[in-house]
């Protein structure tokens, strides 16, 4: 996955190979996000380009775009992805909601293109009626949004916990969704694996770590995994609930995260926290990043 190429500066910070961080706030404008990443000690960030629980689609001012690109370049960060709106449902059987969702997702792709953000993480939709029909609607709607937006921003389909009628909780389903995307756009579709969602959906990262990734490789392909959401879970295995907990303080415990941080297959994959922030929005993230880095010590050296 290509990283953004913000405006060139005379003196650029040395960039690390690590790509570890958290979802950060954009309060005060999207241009504030890189600085918040630096504040918590991140080397990669995830952000919203707009308020995620409103349909309003703000147009980015040229000054905001330039400020974000300059802040990113000055930060030394080594990766950035966005996350789409919570309101979007590209699998809905309701034509009005589908049309609104397509418009919103196309606007998200456009903002990412303007900002130089190479990928947007997206929840597959809720089918509400029939699963197979929902998958087909989802693929058609993604394609329509991509046709309406400029650039080559990637879509990273996120694994889900399997709550209600949500799509994307099974590897077979994610693979089928990608296969339904028109060939002209399929190269722009990858995946984001959320550890809480995987565990809640019945993929046992605690007791069957190798088997989980063997199944992923067989059905999807490790090469299509571009992002991790590193979250422990407040609920038990196969609960089908989406409740994030601090790393090593939930039902997954430390071992799956230790293995992910040391797994050479995932060395270049962006890894971001979506764990509880706490009162000051900084301390917990800093502590969790230190914890994850301690797990990664002793990992095999990267081969370049």
Q: What do you see in this structure?
A:
There is one protein chain. With 304 residues, the protein is an alpha/beta fold. It is 38% helix and 13% strand. It has ten helices and ten strands. The chain has an eight-stranded parallel barrel with strand order 1-2-3-4-5-6-7-10, surrounded by four helices. Strands 8-9 form a two-stranded antiparallel ribbon. Strand 3 (80-83), helix 3 (95-115) and strand 4 form a beta-alpha-beta unit. The chain starts with 19 loop residues before the first strand and ends in an 8-residue tail after the last helix. Residues 4-12 have low confidence and may be disordered.
* Number of helical regions: 10
The CATH homologous superfamily name equals Divalent-metal-dependent TIM barrel enzymes
Which oligomerization state do the chains in this entry correspond to? single chain
Shape: globular
Search tags:
304 residues, alpha/beta, TIM Barrel, eight-stranded parallel barrel, two-stranded antiparallel sheet, 10 helices, 10 strands, 38% helix, 13% strand
Summarize the structure.
Helices cover 38% and strands 13% of the residues. With 304 residues, it is an alpha/beta fold.
SSE layout and pairings?
Layout: E1 20-23, H1 33-40, E2 44-47, H2 62-75, E3 80-83, H3 95-115, E4 119-122, H4 131-148, E5 154-158, H5 171-180, H6 183-186, E6 189-194, H7 195-201, H8 209-219, E7 225-230, E8 232-233, E9 244-245, H9 255-262, E10 270-273, H10 283-296
Parallel strand pairs: 1-2, 1-10, 2-3, 3-4, 4-5, 5-6, 6-7, 7-10
Antiparallel strand pairs: 8-9
Helix pairs in contact: 1-2, 3-4, 4-5, 9-10
């Amino acid at each position: 996955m290509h990283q953004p190429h913000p405006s060139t500066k005379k003196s650029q910070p040395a960039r690390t190979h690590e790509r570890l961080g958290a979802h950060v706030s954009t309060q005060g404008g999207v241009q504030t996000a890189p600085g918040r990443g630096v504040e918590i000690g991140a080397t990669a960030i995830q952000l919203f380009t707009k308020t995620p629980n409103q349909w309003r689609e703000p147009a980015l001012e040229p000054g905001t775009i330039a400020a974000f690109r300059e802040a990113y370049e000055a930060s030394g960060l080594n990766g950035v992805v966005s996350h789409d709106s919570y309101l979007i449902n590209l699998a809905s059987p309701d034509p009005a909601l589908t049309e609104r969702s397509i418009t919103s997702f196309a606007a998200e792709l456009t903002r990412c293109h303007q900002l130089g953000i190479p990928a947007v993480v997206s929840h597959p939709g809720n089918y509400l009626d029939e699963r197979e029909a929902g998958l087909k609607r989802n693929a058609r709607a993604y394609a329509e949004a991509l046709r309406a937006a400029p650039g080559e921003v990637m879509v990273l389909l996120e694994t889900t916990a399997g709550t209600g009628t949500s799509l994307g909780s099974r590897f077979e389903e994610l693979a089928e969704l990608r296969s339904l995307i028109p060939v002209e756009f399929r190269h722009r579709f990858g995946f984001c694996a959320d550890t809480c969602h995987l565990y809640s959906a019945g993929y046992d990262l605690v007791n069957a770590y190798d088997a989980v990734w063997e199944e992923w490789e067989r059905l999807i392909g490790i090469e299509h995994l571009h992002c991790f959401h590193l979250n422990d879970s407040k609920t038990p295995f196969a609960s089908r609930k989406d409740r994030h907990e601090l790393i090593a303080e939930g039902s997954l415990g430390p071992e799956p995260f230790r293995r992910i941080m040391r797994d050479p297959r995932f060395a270049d994959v962006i890894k971001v926290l979506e764990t509880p922030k706490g009162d000051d929005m900084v301390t917990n993230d800093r502590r969790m990043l230190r914890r994850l880095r301690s797990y990664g010590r002793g990992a095999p050296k990267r081969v370049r």
